[in-house]
UniProtKB/TrEMBL annotation:
This is tRNA uridine(34) hydroxylase. InterPro entries: Rhodanese-like_dom, Rhodanese-like_dom_sf, Rhodanese_C, TrhO, TRHO_N. The keyword tRNA processing applies. The lineage of its organism: Bacteria, Pseudomonadati, Bacteroidota, Saprospiria, Saprospirales. Belongs to the TrhO family. Keywords: Oxidoreductase, tRNA processing. Its EC number is 1.14.-.-. It catalyses: uridine(34) in tRNA + AH2 + O2 = 5-hydroxyuridine(34) in tRNA + A + H2O. PROSITE patterns: RHODANESE_3. The gene is trhO. It comes from Neolewinella antarctica.
């Protein structure tokens, strides 16, 4: 794809509205939106040109969301007006690299999932810390449908591993899953390998939100000598959809964390996490509304009212200061956002095999 050079075209390659204008635009919409995710590992020769072409075409269809483009492929979470969904699917199919790509429809497609379209060029579509040249990423683990997942999880000796970050698995997970206590996928990969070092011959089922992390992880673990690696096809999102359509028992309990303004969609009625402030059962996740902190926490409705959606008394007090005092002091304050660690979620995350 040739680069887009004209000034008029370049002006269409990014959002120019303020956050307030974006929220007003979304609030004024009268049509429901379809929210979904997608990914594909595919060779993209010129990611920057590919990004620009996609932005122009998708912006015209009022697509909102976040998409990463790299030489290894594309990874996106977006929403589109209901009436433009088929037009967007057709637009994807017109791009050879994206033709017939699976779209994982959200379980709870709330309108406010995204405010604008962001397409970013990255080195990788998922930061995994792996040397892709050392193994074949196309030799992936077996894909499991929802019925196959349930059958395998019922078999004695099956090991199920959550390949997500700790704050994702805190509010929902497959029953009996290993849920490693890590913030970054790149750290989780070698840790899981070490955890399972003496169980290489076991049936291992991995899962993540939409499947993309397990695509790479399963290929890596096969390369590292784990012959029976499988993955939940389409991740939690498609597993939940299949369970609903086929009237299957869901072995995933709680909420599925999603990377948009919803922060989560409910899969079952189970509440498996606790408020970080008072300890009562809760799975409402928010970002602390004290700007310099912005810590992601689990907070019940009562504590939200008491602390004005802040993660601590310290953040609440800081938020009440006059703007000029907050601006003057924020560079010298250390909030939970900079020290958030295991103490805040002690006893919540399962750290290994039982």
């Amino acid at each position: 794809m040739p680069p887009i050079k004209s000034r008029a075209m370049r002006s269409r390659l990014k959002n120019i509205l303020s956050p307030a204008e974006l929220r007003a635009r979304l609030a004024a919409e009268t049509e429901s939106r379809v929210t979904f995710s997608f990914y594909r590992y595919v060779h993209i020769t010129e990611p920057a040109a590919f990004r620009d072409e996609c932005y122009v075409a998708w912006d015209e269809l009022l697509v909102f969301g976040r998409v990463y483009v790299a030489k290894e492929g594309v990874n996106g979470q977006v929403s589109v007006p209901q009436s433009k969904f088929e037009a967007y699917r057709a637009a994807l199919d017109r791009v050879p690299a994206l033709r017939a790509m699976r779209l994982n429809l959200a379980i709870e497609a709330k309108a406010g999932s995204f405010l604008k379209l962001k397409i970013k060029v990255r080195d990788k579509i998922v930061a995994d810390g792996l040397n892709d040249a050392s193994f074949d990423v196309t030799k992936r683990g077996r894909h499991l449908s929802a019925p196959e997942v349930n059958q395998l999880l019922d078999e004695e000796g099956t090991i199920v591993v959550d390949m997500r970050n700790h704050y994702e698995s805190e509010v929902g997970y497959f029953e009996g899953a290993i849920r490693p206590d890590f913030t970054y996928f790149r750290d989780l990969l070698p840790a899981v390998e070490e955890m399972l070092a003496d169980k290489k011959e076991a049936n291992i089922v991995m899962y993540c939100t939409g499947g993309i992390r397990c695509e790479k992880a399963s290929a890596y673990y096969l390369h590292r000598g784990f012959p029976n690696v499988a993955m939940v096809d389409g991740g939690i999102i498609d597993y939940a959809r299949q369970c609903e359509e086929l009237e299957l028992e869901s072995k995933y309990i709680g909420k599925n964390f999603v990377f948009d303004e919803r922060l989560g969609e409910r899969i079952s009625d189970h509440v498996v996490s606790h408020c970080h402030q008072c300890g009562t059962p809760a799975d409402r996740q928010i970002d602390c509304t004290n700007g310099p902190c912005h810590t992601l926490i689990v907070q019940c409705e009562a504590c939200a009212a008491t602390f004005d959606n802040c993660c601590s008394q310290e953040c609440y007090d800081f938020k009440q200061l006059p703007p000029e005092d907050r601006e003057r002091l924020k560079a010298t304050k250390i909030f939970n956002g900079q020290r958030y660690g295991k103490a805040m979620r002690a006893g919540v995350v399962n750290k290994g095999l039982s």
